[in-house]
Amino acid sequence: MFHHFTQLVSDASGWAYAIIFVLALLDAIVPIVPSETSVITAGVVASQGDLSLPLVILFAAGGAIAGDNIAYFLGWRFGRQINDRFFTSEKAKKRVEWAHRQVEERGGELIVIARFIPGGRTVVTLSAGTLEYPWRKFILFDAIAGFVWATYAAGLGYFGGAAFEDAPWKGLLLAFAIAFAVTGAIELVRWYVKRRRQSATTT
User: Which of 90, 129, 163, 180 could hold 72 in an S-S bridge, CB 3.0 to 4.6 Å?
Assistant: First the structure.
């Protein structure tokens, strides 16, 4: 992917920003789209001077916020039908139930945290719309989440690439390793908090 992205940038860097925006937007609706991968890769490319880091962050954040808002309004308009149609497995239903409960209890805090959980961001934004969480509050927290996420992902790639100027692919691998570690740490904390709450309710 790094080779293809670098080739694209050398041909027309303007298209690279558009692709970053579109992937970030689609990832908010279809979790299998590799938006974080593209932003980290763009950060590495920016460290080589072929892209502007502030523009990478701006377009990634803009795409993420736009996608989250589409998911929010889909949830607001078609939330129940979407849940019945696409979240049919037992695991998916539990995720939706968890998201609904957490949105009602924690709201804005969850919207920010969910941006760093692949798949979780889609369930949470859909749930926020389905539960008619106030849009003005949603857009505020979502904008914070989008810019923090974009800065984090692009920054990982940029500083990883800068640390390995002669072999930027090593910086890409380092950035991915850190991203996976952060995602794993978030999931571990979620699991620990969930167990603590379950034990508290049973005692």
Answer: 129
Read off the pLDDT of residues 38-82 as tens digits, 9 standing for 90 and up.
888 888 888 878 789 999 999 999 999 999 999 999 888 887 776
Two tokens at 42? 């763009």
3-state secondary structure of 56: helix
Structure tokens at 167: 């072999």
Please check whether residue 130 is in contact with residue 77, taking contact to mean a CB–CB distance below 8 angstroms.
no
Please tell me which residue, 25 or 46, carries the higher pLDDT value: 25
Report d(CA 174, CA 178) in Å as an integer.
6
- pTM of the predicted model over 0.85: no
Amino acid type, 136: R
φ and ψ at residue 63, rounded to 5 degrees: -65, -40
- Dihedral (CA of 92, 98, 102, 104) sign: positive
Per-residue b/e over 146-175, b at no fewer than 16 CB within 10 Å?
bbebbbbbbbbbbbbbeebeeebeebbebb
Please name the residue that has the structure tokens 């996420």: 149
